[in-house]
Amino acid sequence: MCSQSTDSYNGTPMIRGPLEFSIRSFDEVSSTSDIARELAKSGAAEGTVVVAKRQTAGRGRFSSRWFSPEGGLYCTVLLRPDIPAQRSHLLGMTAGLAVADAIEPAIGLPAQLKWPNDIYLTGKKVAGVLTETEVCNERVRLALVGIGINVQRPDSGVPDQLRGRAVWLSELVGVRPADLLTAVLDAFALWYEMLRSGDLGGMVESYNRRGLLRGRDVEVRSADRVTAGRCRGIDARGALVIEQPSGSIKTIVEGKVCSWS
Ligand code: BTN
């Protein structure tokens, strides 16, 4: 049982203005997404953004931990998108595009997107997105879009598993997390409007232009199987397109890229 959306009345969608943000800042939290979830339960509005200087239990996709020392950007955007559940995967991709838009001008280097929503610079991961949703009657009523960006490489060192795989913006240029947050949210608002309006062409084009996996051989785990083949980018619905060795095409909406070369 789930409650009725506040965005429709008798099935007629209300006209909604552009996304406006209301920022809630903290020094330390377990996870910005935990705080955003609590705020959502108390009725917080769409556009509420929880940002913290550090997280003690930052989490990533597939139950991984997100290294969250001071100097990074950790935020969660609370959304009440009321979009069809089949499009929920596009929320994270939208955030990935926004992060790429925000960091490229600051760094002066192209940012790449590794499906579905990892952001890479110089071949290493610089940011990630974790989207948690609540779906009711096949529509996404609540989405918590958590964004973590490696900004200042900590002097105290980084976990072994990140060495050689992750990059911090401070290794390339000096950026303040607060300035970055503004740029990310500005870009996110634009992509989110397009997503809500169903205008996906520009998103798909921009995503494919930045696609790290395009033309590469990949292995993708989804549900109970692994699909191997040549990545052909994403299709009009945002699904990953893989050309299998037999020549048949497989599309994957949700999964984890296990390897690419
Ligand atoms: C990933 O690449 O696995 C996703 C990482 C997402 C990390 C961000 S940091 C802000 C928000 N709070 C969390 O606990 N996780 C997300």
Summarize the structure.
The chain is of the alpha+beta class.
What's the helix and strand layout?
Layout: E1 8-9, E2 12-13, E3 22-29, H1 32-41, E4 48-55, E5 73-79, E6 83-84, H2 89-107, E7 112-114, E8 118-121, E9 124-136, E10 139-149, H3 177-197, H4 201-209, E11 217-222, E12 225-234, E13 240-243, E14 249-252, E15 256-260
Parallel strand pairs: 3-4
Antiparallel strand pairs: 1-2, 4-5, 5-10, 6-10, 7-8, 8-9, 9-10, 11-12, 11-15, 12-13, 13-14
Helix pairs in contact: 2-3
Bound molecules: biotin.
Describe this structure in words.
The structure is a single chain. The protein has 4 helices and 15 strands. The protein has helices at residues 32-41, 89-107, 177-197, 201-209; strands at residues 8-9, 12-13, 22-29, 48-55, 73-79, 83-84, 112-114, 118-121, 124-136, 139-149, 217-222, 225-234, 240-243, 249-252, 256-260. The strands form 3 sheets. Strands 3, 4, 5, 6, 7, 8, 9 and 10 form an 8-stranded mixed beta sheet that branches. The protein has a 5-stranded antiparallel beta sheet with strand order 14-13-12-11-15. Strands 1-2 form a two-stranded antiparallel ribbon. Helix 2 crosses helix 3. It is globular. The N and C termini lie far apart (45 Å). Biotin (BTN) binds at residues 31-33, 55, 58-61, 64, 66, 74-76, 118, 128-130, 146-148.
Task: Name its key features.
261 residues; alpha+beta; BirA Bifunctional Protein, domain 2; SH3 type barrels; eight-stranded mixed β-sheet; 4 helices; 23% helix; globular; binds biotin
